[in-house]
Amino acid sequence: MRLLSITLISLSFLMFLSCDDGDIITVEFDFENNFDSCGELVFYKTKKEPAESMSILFKNLTLEQLLQVGDNDTLITSSTGNIFNYRTYSNATLPTTGLFCSDIPSSEVQIIEDYESEGGEATIITVLIEDDNDGIPAHLEDRNGNGDLTDDDTDGDGIPDYLDADDDGDNVLTKDENPDPNGDGDFSDAQDTDGDGIPDYLDNDDDGDGVLTRDEENDTQNQNPKDDITNSEVGPDYLNKDIKNSVPATAYRTHTYTQVYKISLYLDISIRIISQDDYYFGTLNNLPSKTVTVTPDFN
Q1: Are 261 and 66 contacting, i.e. CB atoms less than 8 angstroms apart?
Q2: Would the pLDDT of 210 be above 70?
């Protein structure tokens, strides 16, 4: 996965306010490193004690446009002509909703100072993080060790292992084949029913009886060998080496995986009270996500 790494010396900075009497007041921005969004499109964050907010309105940008990032990739979007606001309020109890993007502002909120800048440049970094949530971290599914997750496809079904809920194509989900029995993150003790040195989640014949696991559906042909049990004392037929009946499978089961979009924002802003380059605004809360469902062609 190609990522952009940016290191900042500080996540907060000082601004200097000029008072009418010529004195300089030093104020420190000390917001959390995350933000929220609303409308089409405002990014904002608030804090208490003192009550403050920072927001940026994007005139010609939508959240949907920020999600136009290719699979397993990063999108860098630059935008100018935005409106940035730093505000202070009279009360520390700011509402959790309705402060921005509301047609009717809350009557309970009183703005003391509102500093606005037009023309600030924003750099938005969207990273698409994809995973099949099969119990094995995506970075460990680079089986050939070349740093490219997309060319590791154990079962040859066209879905790379890090997005394949059934890595070996035996119609038993990887997470159901005990890849990490004790949950310690060490996969060296993964279940290996036939003791052939290949863990069940990568073995298309789990019990080593010569019949593919996906073909051991003696009772119900529903792309789920787990519910075909001849001897309840042993368990499913695909784990019983004494049951060798073969009912050839005709399809793979449907797979699902998730796509999560991590959105980070950096600003170059200049207003009367402040000038700051590469300010880290933070990462969007409630990361947008999608569920992808796919049934691979059977082979």
Answers
A1: yes
A2: yes
Which structure tokens are listed for 69?
A: 């990032």
SS3 222: coil
Percent helix, strand and coil across the chain, each to the nearest 5: 10, 35, 55
Residue 292: phi and psi, rounded to 5, are -105, 130
3-state class (DSSP) for residue 34: strand
Please give the Cα distance from 195 to 212 (Å, whole number).
Answer: 16
Cα gap 1→8, rounded to integer Å: 22
211 secondary structure, DSSP code: S
Q: Please name every residue paired with 38 in a beta bridge, in sequence order, or none if there are none.
A: 42
**What residues contact 96, with CB distance under 8 A and at least 6 apart?**
none
Q: What is the pLDDT of residues 148-168, one digit of tens each?
A: 999 999 999 999 999 999 999
For the stretch 76-109, pLDDT in tens is 999 888 889 989 888 777 776 778 888 776 777 8
Query: Ramachandran region of residue 195, left (φ > 0), alpha (ψ -120 to 50) or beta?
Result: left
Element (H, E) at 66: helix 63-66
DSSP class of residue 63 equals H
Q: How far apart are CA 179 and CA 17, in angstroms?
A: 59
Beta bridge partners of 290: 259
Distance CA 178, CA 170 (A): 14
Rounded to two decimals, what is the model's pTM? 0.76
Among positive and negative, which fits the CA dihedral 210, 213, 217, 218? positive
Domain boundaries, the chain: 14-130+260-290, 175-246
CA–centroid distance for 135 within its chain? 15
How far is 182 from 132, CA to CA, in rounded Å?
20
* Backbone φ and ψ of 239, nearest 5°: -110, 10
Segments of 10-139 assigned E as strands = 14-18, 24-28, 34-38, 42-47, 52-57, 74-89, 111-131
Rounded Cα distance between 96 and 238, Å, is: 54
